Structure formats: structure tokens, C-alpha cells
TrEMBL record:
The keyword Lyase applies. Keywords: Lyase, Thiamine pyrophosphate. Belongs to the XFP family. Coiled coil: none annotated. GO terms for biological process: carbohydrate metabolic process. This is Probable phosphoketolase. It comes from the Bacteria. GO terms for molecular function: aldehyde-lyase activity; magnesium ion binding.
Length: 807
């Protein structure tokens, strides 16, 4: 161990040791060798885990999957963080950004004991090591990344580019937490990661934790050199300083350097870094911190494939792109490769790091932290263990007044903002709103009555008008990647939040959504993973009310992406007014292990349902607007008009009113959908309707005209097996968009009330022959509406001033 000095304990970590003793260097190297040995074994071996006999072909896996190149660097970093945790009592978690670092994280979880505690059959014996090796990237086993199955992981690594965003999300509201985050130099070339360096402008030194970025330069990606490894070190350090960090540099592992030397440099540098962090935290705590701190970061340069084979088949492998995946690819078919694998694993001297039974020797695990201080066992990385339910004000108290359907108008998101204001008030340390500079634009401004936007860059006097402050519950940066990553990290470490966005621009995080959905899908099947708060989207400024911004802001296709995911994870809600939005969002914030996508308008629109009616309707998820229809009790309707979304509901009700006035004998049923998953079959989704329930609403043989918020084919996808699907005609967005008026937008896509009436006339048997003049009038009215916009730049009064007339 090291010898501690007599300086008083800092408020953030223990005192600095006076020196790193030789036995500590030996302990660091023993862990490093053991972790490397276990990592190689995971990639290659089925049997003979401790090399009791020379390796034979049948000891190796038939399919070699996994990645070696980044792994030794991760093992090296983990070993040294162990020392820091043990000696200086820091609460630390580890995020492995490189996409293929799974062997390292699994190996370290095994060495510190967490893996065996989590998976009792993989114990500290030779047979336990055999099982550890066999399961890796093997059918019925575990993935090759730091997946949900890996204790201590909140970041899989395959989601390339998001490690720093996840890290800062974990650090928010965790003032004592150090998030050690390894950024691979390939990952550092991605757009999300390049942006994420700026997260340090959003950390409150007093109330938040600390992210330690560790830029791991091993020089190569899959088949190319990396940019940051091939620029001068001075230029790289200047780049990091320009991002607001203080860079510390450690290099080693090249040529025949004494292993102790690089361990000694790394240990001393980490002590300097932790001292630097402690000074910042102490100054923040006592009020003497001046300006924004330049938080430390580490640049670690080691060879790719460090300690692995140097030459294979005459080609360089260590410190080369060839070590990225499996350096020895033909161990089952080439005796030379098999012998090289045997020599490689033997070079770690397993007899010095494991005892006769297979358990790690004391020197190997001497620096392993204990209990929850182990990075693999920290409760923060299993956020459901520390999650506290939100204290939610009663959303009914925020209801908008609806004396009768359509009599009043409200901004749905404006009403939601008043409720969210008090959610923030009542949950000051575990709820945040994230958004790419759109919180006010999406009409959530009421939240600024009780909070500010967190900001730790420079201030100007006018910034007070924009609610900027060092601490706040609203996180805004003009990067959807950053907002999504922050929120994911925040949720996975036990907290709550929402991500509000313009609907068209949420596509920027399609891949991140996919990866988080996959994480939840995996975590839901792992008993020891406790439920975490759902990822809640609020998509406003949506396609039908982006007429002023034009086609670039018009795209509802995120819904189609979401519906591709497993039904136990995703939900899509299309509330039709303010009260249904309030009821929906209360449900979303109470849910766990879901991704909830809610689309709602921000502009004043008609209120259709009183709060009691809204609650009943939201609980059902789908139902009749019997106050709007003209069907006769006990008789089937002639036509069903269905709608999902606020503007489609408006147009459907306007069409219903026209039909009621012009063809009063027509029996019209109006069905409104809030929960899009209700259209699924009950065999496909837990919210799905049975065939009998679906038939009762939509009939099996009557025309159904469905006005949908998004692309029409999504509704067909959900209902293609239903009875009467051939009678279903869906109107929605058809990629016809421009800068125009609100009503012209719906006319461009044939979603307008007049076209819905035309659809009814054309699809209800016998109507066209009896009402041909009416059919022509509807076409003429559409032309007149179009011409009015061209002449006046606005919608004609009968549309703009329309209101619902009760029967």
C-alpha cells in the first residue's frame, strides 16, 4: 500500500499518499495481468482456463468473437482507479466508451467479486473461470459489449459517441460521484462525442459530481489510424484546453519499457488529478471558486493491443489496427496461431495471479475496493436501487375549463408547463427537463417561475432575462444528442426527467433511441436490474403546426421508428387536448422501464374533454366521442371517422359537423385514439385491443376513414390483420410540406375536413349518387380555401374561426 501524509481530509476525497510504494506497483501490475489474462480467455477459450496443459484445438471456441485492441488499456485504467478508490475513498463509477471493451469490464467485475455475487455459478474457482470464458459472445451467453448483463455498466459501448453525455447525466445531482469515462480515440471522431466535451459548461461544481474524461489514444480504429492520435501532442492539449479542460498526459507500454515505470507515472498523475478535483470541489463548497473551473482530463497513450502478440503471420499486430478484434484468427486451424495464443496467455504468468483452485491470489486483488465502493457494485449503476418515486402534484388541479366540447381553447403544452413547474418545485434534486433550446418555444415557460437553465459558462447582464444560472433544473444545449445522452445517464442512475423537442428534429437521436430501447429490453430480462424511470419524450412544434417554418420542420416519422421496438418497452400517445395531455404525462412520469413518446401541440386549440372525461378516455386509450357522432343507439353506423392527434381530431370533428348538417340521416361514429398501441392486437402488445373490442369500435364491414397525425401506413401496419382492414382508409402526412398556412398544410396532405367529407361520400355505398352536388361543393370549397391563402396569406374565416356546435 501507499503511505498517507498528515494533511486533513478534503470534503471530496481522502488525503494524498506521500508516495506509491513498490508493493503497490506490484499489486497494480498483478491486477493488470490478471484482467488481461481473463480478457483473452473470454475471447478464445472454452476449456483449460488456467493452462493446466498446453492449449489444444478443442480448448478454443469455434467462432472467435470479441475485441482485444482497446481491452488492455481499459484494464490498466481500471486497476489504477481501484487504487484511487481504496486509498482516497472516492465514490466512482466507470464508463467504457470504446465500443468493444466488454472483456475488460467483465474481467474486472469478476476480479473484484461482484460478478460471482451476481451470478453465483461463476465463482472464484477454475470451473467458474471456465464458465466465465465460455459464456462470452457465445450462444446463450453474454454480449461482447458492456451490456446490461454486466454489473457496473450504464453504457454498452456499442452506442458509439455517447459516453461523455451519459457520464455527465450520471454526475448531475450526484455531488460526491466521480464518473471516470474512457473515450476511445475512434469514438472521439463522432459528432456526439465532439460536442460532448462542452458538457463541462453545464456542471455545477457544488451540487453536481465530477466527470473525469480519459481520452485513450491507442492509435487505430478498425482499419485506419485515428485523428487525435496523429496530431502533435501540443496541438491535442491545446484542443482540450480550448474545450475548457486541463489535460494531463500519460504515455507508456511501448517497446520493452519496464511495466513498473508506466504504473508509477499513471499513479502519480491520477493523484495529481484527484488533488486538482478536490481543490475545485473545496473552493466551490466554501464559496471561493472564481469563474468556471478548468476540470482535469487525462490523455492516456498506449499501444493498441498492448501486451498481445507483436507479429502474426509476418504482420505487425500490437500497436497496429490488426489487433482491433481477434489478433490470432485461426487458432483452430493453424498450429502456429494456437501456439502463439498459448504463449500469449502464459506471458501473464497465471501461476502468479491465481491459486491452485483458480481463485485470484491476494496480490491480485489487494487494491480492489470493498462492498459498494467497487465500480462494478456501485448502486448508482443499478439506478433502480436508489430511485425515489416523484412527488407529483395532482394533475387534476391544473385542468383547463371545458364547459362543453370545443367551447374553450388552450395551449396543451402551456397547461402542461404549469404542472411541470410544480413537479420541479416538489422534486428539487431528482427531476430535470432537457431540451435543445426549445423549452420556452414549446410553451413550457411556466417552469421558469421556479427554476433556471443550468449554465456555467460566462454570463452577460442580459442573461438574467433568459433564466441562465449556475444551477437549475432545465438543461438546454443545441444538440439533441447531448440532451438525450444527459437524460439517459440521469435516468439510468436513478432519477427522473423529460426530453422536449421539436418533432421533426427528434430524428437526430434515432440511433440513441434505438440503443436505449435495446438496453431496456435487455435489462427487463435481468432480475437483478431494478426498474428505472421511463425515458419520456414530449414532441411539440409538430408537423401540422410548423407551417411557418416550412418543410424542414415537418416530419412525424419518429413514430414509425418507435413502433419497430419491442412492445414491452415503447409507448406512443397522441393526446387530443390539454386535459388529455395532463393525464397522459402524469401516467408517463409514474412509469418505469419504458420509452414514452407523447406528441402534443403548443398553439391554442380546442378543448374537447373535461378532466373527468379526459381521465376516463386516457385510461381506455381509445374510445367513442359519442357527443360528436350521429349514430343511433342499437344500430351500426354507416361510417366510422377515427382520429389520432390534436389536429386530426380537429379536422375529423369539423368534417363530422359538416356531415351532420348536410346529411343528417347519415349515421356517423367518431372514434378517438390517444394510445396508438391500442390498435395493435392484444397478442402483439400489452395495450392491444382484442379482435372483439376492435370490431365493436370499428365494425367489420363499414367504411373507416382514419385521420392520423403521422404517416398513413403506420395505421395500416398496426391493423393489417384486423377484420375489415380492406375498408380502412387512412389520411395523414404524405411528405407534402412547405411554408404556408395551417389549413393549407392539412389540405396539401388531404387531411383537411373537406377531403374527409369527400372520403365519406366516396366510400359509403350509395352516397355519391345521391349527393354528387355536395361532393362537387367540397372540392370547390377546397379550391376556394387554397385561393384565399394565396390572396390573403391566411386561412379563410370559416376555417380560422370555426368552432364546434353541439347538436
Amino acid at each position: 500500500m501507499t503511505v498517507a501524509n498528515s494533511s486533513p481530509r478534503s470534503p471530496w476525497c481522502g488525503p494524498r499518499p506521500t508516495e506509491v510504494l513498490p508493493e503497490t506497483l506490484d499489486q497494480l501490475d498483478a491486477w493488470f495481468r490478471a484482467a488481461n489474462y481473463l480478457s483473452v480467455g473470454q475471447i478464445y477459450l472454452l476449456d483449460n482456463p488456467l493452462l493446466r496443459v498446453p492449449l489444444r484445438r478443442e480448448h478454443t471456441k469455434p467462432r472467435l468473437l470479441g475485441h482485444w485492441g482497446t481491452t488492455p488499456g481499459l484494464n490498466f485504467i481500471w486497476a489504477h482507479l481501484n487504487r484511487i478508490i481504496l486509498e482516497r475513498d472516492t465514490e466512482t463509477i466507470f464508463i467504457a466508451g470504446p465500443g468493444h471493451g466488454g472483456p475488460a469490464v467483465v474481467a474486472s467485475a469478476y476480479l473484484d467479486g461482484t460478478y460471482s455475487e451476481t451470478y453465483g455459478d461463476i465463482d472464484k474457482t477454475e470451473d467458474g473461470i471456465r464458465k466465465l470464458f465460455r459464456q462470452f459472445s457465445f450462444p446463450g451467453g453474454i454480449p461482447s459489449h458492456a451490456a446490461p448483463e454486466t454489473p457496473g455498466s450504464i453504457h454498452e459501448g456499442g452506442e458509439l459517441g455517447y459516453s461523455l453525455s451519459h457520464a455527465y447525466g450520471a454526475a448531475f445531482d450526484n455531488p460526491n460521484l466521480l464518473v471516470a469515462t474512457v473515450v476511445g480515440d475512434g469514438e472521439a471522431e463522432t459528432g456526439p462525442l465532439a460536442t460532448a466535451w462542452h458538457s463541462n459548461k453545464f456542471i455545477d461544481p457544488e451540487r453536481d459530481g465530477v466527470v473525469l474524461p480519459i481520452l485513450h489514444l491507442n492509435g487505430y480504429k478498425i482499419a485506419n489510424p485515428t485523428v487525435l492520435a496523429r496530431i502533435p501532442e501540443e496541438e491535442l492539449c491545446d484542443l482540450m484546453r480550448g474545450h475548457g479542460h486541463t489535460p494531463y498526459v500519460v504515455s507508456g507500454g511501448f517497446d520493452s519499457e519496464d511495466p513498473r515505470a508506466v504504473h508509477e507515472r499513471m499513479a502519480a498523475t491520477l493523484d495529481d488529478i484527484v488533488d486538482h478535483i478536490a481543490q475545485i470541489k473545496a473552493a466551490a463548497a466554501n464559496g471561493t471558486l472564481k469563474g468556471r473551473p478548468a476540470w482535469p482530463m487525462l490523455i492516456l497513450r498506449t499501444p493498441k493491443g498492448w501486451t498481445g502478440p507483436q507479429i502474426v503471420d509476418g504482420n505487425p499486430v500490437e500497436d497496429n489496427w490488426r489487433s482491433h478484434q481477434v489478433p490470432l484468427a485461426d487458432v483452430r486451424d493453424t498450429e502456429e496461431h494456437l501456439q502463439q495464443l498459448n504463449d500469449w496467455m502464459a506471458s501473464y504468468r497465471p501461476e502468479e495471479i491465481f491459486d491452485a483452485s483458480g481463485a485470484p491470489l491476494a496480490i491480485t486483488t489487494a487494491l480492489a475496493p470493498r462492498g459498494d465502493h467497487r465500480m462494478s457494485a456501485n448502486p448508482v449503476t443499478n439506478g433502480g436501487l436508489i430511485r425515489r418515486p416523484l412527488r407529483l402534484p395532482d394533475f387534476r388541479d391544473y385542468a383547463v375549463d371545458v364547459p362543453s366540447p370545443g367551447e374553450t381553447t388552450s395551449s396543451a403544452t402551456g397547461a402542461l408547463g404549469e404542472w411541470l413547474r410544480d413537479v420541479i418545485r416538489d422534486n428539487p434534486d431528482n427531476f430535470r427537463i432537457f431540451g435543445a433550446d426549445v423549452t420556452a418555444s414549446n410553451r413550457l415557460s411556466a417552469v421558469f417561475d421556479v427554476t433556471n437553465k443550468q449554465w456555467d459558462a460566462d454570463y452577460l447582464p442580459i442573461d438574467a432575462d433568459n433564466h441562465l444560472a449556475r444551477a437549475g433544473r432545465v438543461m438546454e444545449m443545441l444538440s439533441e444528442h447531448q440532451c438525450q445522452g444527459w437524460l439517459e445517464g440521469y435516468l439510468l442512475t436513478g432519477r427522473h426527467g423529460i426530453f422536449n423537442s421539436y418533432e421533426a428534429f427528434i430524428h437526430i437521436v434515432d440511433s440513441m433511441f434505438n440503443q436505449h430501447a435495446k438496453w431496456l429490453e435487455g435489462a427487463n430480462s435481468i432480475p437483478w436490474r431494478r426498474p428505472v424511470s421511463s425515458l419520456n419524450y414530449l414532441l411539440s412544434s409538430h408537423v401540422w403546426r410548423q407551417d411557418h417554418n416550412g418543410a424542414s420542420h415537418q416530419d412525424p416519422g419518429f413514430l414509425d421508428l418507435v413502433m419497430n421496438k419491442k412492445p414491452d418497452v415503447v409507448r406512443v400517445y397522441l393526446p387530443c387536448d390539454a386535459n388529455t395531455l395532463l393525464s397522459t404525462y402524469d401516467h408517463c412520469l409514474r412509469s418505469v422501464d419504458k420509452i414514452n413518446v407523447v406528441v402534443a401541440g403548443k398553439h391554442p386549440e380546442n378543448n374537447w374533454l373535461s378532466m373527468p372525461e379526459a381521465i376516463e378516455h386516457c385510461v381506455r386509450g381509445i374510445g367513442l366521442f359519442d357527443w360528436a357522432g350521429t349514430e343511433v343507439v342499437g344500430e351500426e353506423p354507416d361510417v366510422v371517422l377515427a382520429c389520432a392527434g390534436d389536429v386530426p381530431t380537429l379536422e375529423t370533428l369539423a368534417a363530422t359537423q359538416i356531415l351532420r348538417e348536410r346529411i343528417p340521416e347519415l349515421r356517423v361514429r367518431v372514434v378517438n385514439v390517444i394510445d396508438l398501441m391500442r390498435l395493435h392486437s392484444e397478442s402483439e402488445h400489452p395495450h392491444g385491443l382484442s379482435d372483439a373490442e376492435y370490431d365493436a369500435l370499428f365494425t367489420i364491414d363499414k367504411p373507416v376513414i382514419f385521420a392520423h397525425h403521422g404517416y398513413p401506413w403506420l395505421i395500416h401496419r398496426l391493423t393489417y390483420k384486423r377484420h375489415g382492414h380492406a375498408n380502412l382508409h387512412v389520411r395523414g402526412y404524405k411528405d407534402e410540406g412547405t411554408t404556408t398556412t395551417p389549413f393549407d398544410m392539412v389540405m396539401l396532405n388531404d387531411l383537411d375536413r373537406y377531403h374527409l367529407v369527400i372520403d365519406v361520400l366516396e366510400r359509403v355505398p350509395g352516397l355519391m349518387s345521391r349527393h354528387a352536388a355536395f361532393w362537387q361543393e367540397m372540392h370547390d370549397t377546397r379550391l376556394r380555401a387554397r385561393q384565399y391563402t394565396r390572396e390573403h396569406g391566411d386561412d379563410m374565416p370559416e376555417v380560422a374561426e370555426w368552432s364546434w356546435k353541439s347538436a
